[in-house]
Amino acid sequence: MTKSPYEIKKEICEVGKKVYDLGFVAANDGNISVKVGPNEFYCTPTGVSKGYMTPDMIIKIDADGNKLEGRLNPSSEIKMHMRVYKERPDVNAVVHAHPPVATAFTVAGVEMNQLILPEAVLTIGNVPTCVYGTPSTMEIPDSLMPYLQKHDAFLLKNHGALTVGNTLQRACFTMEEVEFNAKINLYARQIGVGAQARIDEIPCEELEKLMDLRKKIGLPGKHPGCKTCPNLGTSNCRCKNNGGTCTCGGDHNHSAPKSDDAALVAEITRRVMAALGK
């Protein structure tokens, strides 16, 4: 069912309020966009709190960032949104925010690439940290390029996070997943005392099961696959991302998921589908 322009603008405002209420943005931080045509996009304006927007504030722009409709002006950071839409035709929405814990990982120089939660493994995999770029310049869009074809979530060094999706709801949920995963990672490090504390990641054979499940469910978007699988690059690998290829070698064999894992798989499936609103 096609949404009207008003409904799309209203949804953008609702997502803006959500990220504001969650503490993912402060003051006038962050920006949101939705693709509505081959060369038309709705986006949030500059200089406005994302928690207090109304549909009449949302503006329409073209792929070059030129304003087509609206009384306010687009954010200068819309450049990174446009880069995503150019390089990823499957993406229909982009959310940029400053989730504090995930952003703190980039400030501390700690990679958030541990695979620790089944739901996060299914939906986003490991989250790369892009090199630092000056806000509002082409440096940030350029920093996305090494990761854009294999990820739906990106940390921006000393800046924040960017998430994408085939729907605005999906992009918003992915932002929530990034911050929740970061919190669990942080708590584990605090309990283990320090940034170098041991983090118990999900074993490779279990990751293979999760990647099999991802394919079975048919989750949309890109996924980097299982970075630790010793079968990567071989015919035994079941961790390949959707339609992608593996680059790491390995020659270990793992057995296929057993039937007694059915309850675990069913529960993970239930949670993921609930998060996706299906």
Could you give a short description of this structure?
By secondary structure, the protein is an alpha+beta fold.
Features:
about 280 residues, L-fuculose-1-phosphate Aldolase, 8-stranded mixed β-sheet, 8 strands
- Helix content bin: 25-40%
Instruction: Describe the global form.
Output: globular
Largest sheet: 8 strands, mixed
Q: Which structural class fits the helix and strand makeup?
A: alpha+beta
What's the alpha carbon Rg, rounded to whole Å?
Answer: 19 Å
- CATH architectural designation of the largest domain: 3-Layer(aba) Sandwich
CATH topology of the largest domain: L-fuculose-1-phosphate Aldolase
Query: Could you name the CATH class of the largest domain?
Result: Alpha Beta
Give the overall average pLDDT: 85
Walk me through this protein's architecture.
With 278 residues, this protein is of the alpha+beta class. It has 2 domains: 188 residues, Class II aldolase/adducin N-terminal domain (L-fuculose-1-phosphate Aldolase, 3-Layer(aba) Sandwich); 72 residues, no CATH class. Helices cover 36% and strands 12% of the residues. Strands 4-3-2-1-5-8-7-6 form an 8-stranded mixed sheet, sandwiched between helices. α3 packs across α6. The protein is globular, with a radius of gyration of 19 Å. It starts with a helix and ends with a helix. About 8% of the residues have low confidence.
